[in-house]
Amino acid sequence: MLLSLLVFSFAWIPLLIVGGVLAYVELARLARRAFRGAALGAALIVGGLYLTGGLAALAQLQFAWAGERGTVAPSFARWALLALAVTWAADISAYAVGSRIGRRRIAPLLSPRKTLEGTVAGIAAAALVALAFGAVYGLAPAAVAIVALFAGPAALAGDLIESALKRAAGAKDSGGIIPGHGGVLDRIDSLLLVAPVVYLGFVVARSGMMGR
Fold first, then answer.
1. Where are the domains of the chain?
2. How far apart are CA 182 and CA 51, in angstroms?
3. Phi, psi values for residue 182, rounded to 5°
4. What is the pTM of this model?
5. Concatenated DSSP letters for 128-164?
């Protein structure tokens, strides 16, 4: 993803399309194991909209630019990179802290390994990354505040939504396309909700709402 975003920018949208198709195939397979009849149809429709919305926001962020400080035009897709960075910061920090010192489970029925300690670390890490991006690239304070406050919780929510689907389907991973890491949906579950949060921040920066 980083390579396509920062080096081969023309590949960003095709990458998201391919990833979205693979993720939907995985989602549909899980849904068919978890639901029947009208519930299955609703799950397939809602799941498709969910994937499309998250990936569309991420696609838009490649071209997002709100006149950041010190630039005439964007040198790279910093808003898309921000979405990736806060997601990875939240996921990595939550795992690292939770696996080492995590004791209190927050969702034992959905995701037994998720702990309060890891969750707090993930949310804090996402906020710190958002603040660092804002300082380095001169992003609008209101936009930075939106990302700092909501990206971490959005990453957690995206992870739990997928965990709920996998639990209903009786599956550990969404697929096996990435050895040791599960499926594509496993890799982008948090990003699907973080991207719209970052896009909202960009819209606020672009429109000048709440001041800059």
1. 2-207
2. 17
3. 85, -140
4. 0.89
5. HHHHHHHHHHT--HHHHHHHHHHHHHHHHHHHHHHHH
